[in-house]
Amino acid sequence: MALGGYRLGVDFGTSSTVAMLAGPDGRTRPLLFDASPLLSSGVFAGPGAGPLLTGTDAERATSTHPAGFEANPKRRIDDHVIWLAEREVGVTDAIAAVLTRVSTEARRVAGRTPDTVVLTHPAGWSHTRLGVLARAAKQAQLDQCGFVAEPVAAAAYFAHVLGRDLPVGRCLVVYDLGAGTCDVSIVRRTAGGLEVVATAGLDDVGGLDLDAAIVNHARSLTTAADAWGRLEWPHTPTDQRAHQQLWRDARTAKEQLSRHTTADLHIPLVDTVVHVTRDEFETAARPHLDRTVDLTATLLRDTGVPRQHIAGIFLVGGSSRVPLTASLLHRTLRIAPTALDHPELVVAEGALHTPTTTTRPTVEPTLAAATTPAPVQAPPVAPAAPADAPPPADAPPPVPLTGTPTTDDNAYPTALAITPGELETKHTIFDAAAVRWPRWPPRTRRDKATIGGAAALVLAIVAAGLWIFVPDRSQATVTLTGLGPVNGVAFSPDGRTVATTGPNDTARLWDVATGRSTATLRGHQGPVYGVAFSRPDGRILATASNDKTARLWDVTTGRTTVTLPGTGTVGDVAFSPDGKTVAICSWGDAVRLSDVTTGETVTTLTGVSHSAVRVVFSPDGKTLAIAASAGKSAQLSVVATGRTTTTLAHTANVVDVAFSPDGKTLATASADDARLWDLATGETITTFAGHTDSVTSVAFSPDGKTLATGSADNTARLWNVATGGTITTLTEHTDRVTSVVFSPDGRTFATGSWDETVRLWKVAPDTGGVILKEVESQHAPQ
Questions:
Q1: Which residues sit opposite 141 in a β-bridge?
Q2: Which residues are within 8 A (CB) of 672 and not within 5 positions of it... i.e. 6 or more apart?
Q3: CA angle 616, 617, 621 (to 5 degrees)
Q4: Under 8 Å between Cβ of 153 and 350
Q5: Between the CA of residue 200 and those of 317, 410, 430, 442, 502, what are the distances in Å?
């Protein structure tokens, strides 16, 4: 951002408008309206031809003339006029009134008109909508005005203000849950700037719908039908004031439930107070939030962007502050979102870090209609390339979203500037060419002869199919075409078979001795997560999927024997030691135990948070350990009664649990560390600290002397349980390690990762678990 002048960034939102002012010294501050950085976007038209009121003034005026208030003029962007009481108000005039309030405050604080003004807008807005915004800006005397898409501004904030790594070729998922809509966009960093790759939205899901969930829940707790009829269909000024007060209080209750576990809501006309808990609110809000998560997952799947090219998920918009939002996205996408305390301020400030060509907006701009691009494939990414590296010589020139390329490394030429007679939006689609790069350094014939005695296993999972790639270290190249990450890995009880799961709706079985795939299990309609073999015979395989089901498969025939429905994404499955019961962990309800033969529910565990993400039986089968992500704890429940007996509290989300072979201790994996607990006392025995990012998985060796951990820092570690010291650190993975597991005999250790590999490591028991050599399994297309 150039210094020497004042720059104003404005995010005109559905319920609130935010403006950020950057001074000549480069410091950025929010403009305050009635002592708040959030200016209500509502407008009020009183009797006669007086000026329109905005902000708190508009809300206060509703007490005398409630029919003159429009709370969300942005939602009326497609209407020509709005009727406020007996007065016809143009939509452009209503929006201009809000922008005029911003313009006036900016001039007061700066002492002059800002040198540059940047307004943000949804990425999918048509030329008609942008034309209305342009005319409103002109009417508000925002003369030097440029425009930028909201997800681009958010990505600029992510990279510039937060200082997060967003190198060339990587993508940021911007999840914007505002008051009226949910917009999800994929923004890619190129050598020339930031580009919107794809965008999708829901016009009927937003914070207002979450407010409605609270109102509907409150109504279900009362019986005053007449009073509720007046609240829902107000005709008199008294009823209209009560209606508006109810909805303002519902929004306040929603915001309070983001910080606390309970909130009280006064119901006017009914004249009662309803006590609302966070669990009740999340149950009511869940269907709306599930739709936004499904939208995000579908957009990622349809665009074909590999998980390892996603730099992060960034939550913006005031309603994204609801804790369940981040929790659901994390569980479904297995990527921890970046959430801020004040997500409403992100877009306005990010706009200041996007260079624009500023001109006076025209009254009748034209716009090439913004569309969602066709499905795309992986961008050619060289992970080690510097952020400002130029594109390859033979690469086609990138198409900037808008604006002119700049040499400023901290600037992103993505602002949409209104020029006389033109207002244009463009999208760049990824090059669909396959990507090849070396995986291993060249080896000599003697090197290959030395490792020839090891079992060279190759495990491959891709949406299009499978082929076995035995690493020829003299030809260290692999062709990648739309691969996906490894979600789960499991050994059969005899150690001869490995099962893997991934995002392509399938599970696969592999022969450990030959490294060949023996079966592909098809039937799920979404990504497959947890996987487990039945004990002690291994004849049944259980899988958990995003399609809200768990399936039991006959390993011999590869056919489904039982389908177990869940109320939400089923994230994990576990068999009891006798193989007669299977536990399914559905993120939409409590953990359930089902009969393996009939599929009928045997027990539903009570007192279990809906955020449970992992389950495992104790060696004696009497206890079930549950990792409760949002609850930041591990819970122990009695299998026979389903009653929770012990809660082991972490300071961050718990994502995996593992019993020691003797059942006396429990290992937990969390976003803060891995821990070992004494189950007799409930006290921490050892904290395993060393990973530089979240611990994602834990597993004991069969003798209980070694603990394995996987981490989002792309490494796996083996720890000495007795001393708590590190035995070895495995650094070969290039992305998050999602699964760690020992073979039943303890001689092989497997790690699965989002870098599309499963690696099998040979362990020498007589050396205390020291890794002797690794056998790499590369996911590659058939």
A1: none
A2: 650, 651, 652, 694, 695
A3: 175
A4: yes
A5: 16, 27, 17, 44, 24
10 Å Cβ neighbour count for 767? 10
pLDDT value at 317 more than 50: yes
Report how far residue 352's alpha carbon sits from residue 20's, in angstroms, rounded to the nearest whole number: 8
Please calculate the CA angle 79-81-84 and round it to the nearest 5 degrees. 120
Helix axis angle for 127-139 and 91-110, nearest 10°, is 50
Q: Of 743, 682, 680, 678, nearest to 708 (Cα)?
A: 743
Closest CA to 340 of 201, 124, 164: 164
Locate 10 and state its tokens.
Answer: 């404005």
> Does pLDDT of 422 surpass 50?
no
In the block, residue with structure tokens 């350094």: 441
**Nearest alpha carbon to residue 642 among 622, 615, 620:** 622
CB 761 within 8 A of CB 740: no
Spatial contact of 154 and 346, defined as CB atoms under 8 Å apart: yes
Taking 80 as the threshold, does the pLDDT of residue 35 lie above it? yes
What's the whole-number average pLDDT of the chain?
A: 77
To the nearest 10°, the Cα dihedral for 359, 361, 364, 366? 50
Euclidean distance between CA atoms 522 and 530, whole angstroms: 15
Do the Cβ atoms of 39 and 72 come closer than 8 Å? no
Give the residue among 311, 320, 312 at the shortest CA–CA distance from 346. Answer: 320
Residue among 252, 267, 278 nearest 220 (CA): 267
Q: How far apart are CA 329 and CA 292, in angstroms?
A: 9
CA distance 130 to 110: 27
In this structure, the strands spanning 116-121 and 145-149 are: parallel
Spatial distance between the Cα atoms of 170 and 166, rounded to a whole number of angstroms: 6
Q: In this structure, how many other beta carbons lie within 10 angstroms of the beta carbon of residue 622?
A: 13
Two tokens, residue 407 = 């040499």
Name the one residue in this structure whose structure tokens are 């099962």.
499
For the stretch 445-498, pLDDT in tens is: 333 333 333 333 333 333 333 322 222 322 222 222 233 578 899 999 998 888
As to burial, measured by CB atoms within 10 angstroms (0-12 exposed, 13-18 middle, 19+ buried), residue 178 is buried
Packed helices 323-333 and 278-303: angle between N→C axes, nearest 10 degrees: 40
Per-residue pLDDT of 706-764, as tens digits, reads 999 999 888 999 999 998 888 888 888 888 899 999 999 888 888 888 877 788 888 76
Whole-number Å distance between alpha carbons of 186 and 301: 12
What is the SS3 assignment for 740?
strand
What is the DSSP secondary structure assignment for residue 504, as one 8-state letter? S
β partners of residue 329: none
Q: What is the DSSP string of 106-164?
A: HHHHHSS--SEEEEEE-TT--HHHHHHHHHHHHHTT--SEEEEEHHHHHHHIIIIIS--
What tokens does 628 get? Answer: 């409760």
Rounded to 10 deg, the angle between the 225-232 and 237-257 helix axes is 90
Question: Cα(405)–Cα(407) distance, rounded to whole angstroms?
Answer: 7
Q: What is the DSSP string of 54-71?
A: EHHHHHHHTTT-GGGEES
With 0-12 / 13-18 / 19 or more C-beta atoms within 10 angstroms meaning exposed / middle / buried, residue 162 is: middle
Residues with Cβ within 8 Å of 36's Cβ and at least 6 positions away in sequence, in order, are none
| CA-based nearest residue to 455, from 780, 752, 762, 781 | 762
